[in-house]
Structure prediction request, 260 residues.
Amino acid sequence: MHAIGVDIGGSGIKAAPVDLASGKLLAERQKLSTPQPSTPKAVASVVAELTRSFNWSGPVGATFPGVVVDGTTRTAANVDHAWIGLDVRALLAEATRLDVSVVNDADAAGMAEMAFGAGEGVTGTVLMLTFGTGVGSALFTDGTLVPNTEFGHIQIHGTDAEKRASEHARERHGLSWHKWANRMDEYLKHMEALLSPQLIIIGGGVSRKSDKFLPRLNGIRARVVPAAMHNDAGIVGAAMHACPQWTGYKRTRGSETSVP
Prediction:
């Protein structure tokens, strides 16, 4: 079974067709810059361009950096606020002329990591955190996704955690890896106090540089590991969401449901 995954981010939009049996991309992913301003019409046009580049006629899954309920976006922290309250599923379906589903971006990345990556086979409470333009979160308990957690907006020192601890914040403030790791450490301790996860997965593009910050974390009881799928996780998770045979990260084969 194959589907296209489209990962919509604050700075870039990337897409690729995915083999859902293996979680592997079937073609080299394509990436275009997120339009500025990132209005719904402008973003939908980019999504349509990306799907056309693969000459695709099957299902499409798209991520969105905010809360998504039944295809409607409820929040839009890092894109244009015109997205709030929009039926984004209908918008993208009209633009692409394809069957489209929409899921929170961090939830998609978490689904992929639980199925094919660092969380595969892990039970208990697992927290996925993605560090990029903002901080996204996906929470799983015994393999069941708790959707739209958006823990990047938890207040630390009177401001959203993502404004201090995101990759964008590190670059904007010119923070060394050591100073940024201190901010991440503070944030992870806060999340651990709230959720007591057994495993914390660090995702986003920064996961490729985990050797620069993970060794600097101090006093976290949970096991903290880099994401295995790096920037492909959102694409793969979006493609998973496009197919009704997937529920959370559980995969249905015939009449038997198994956890990869």
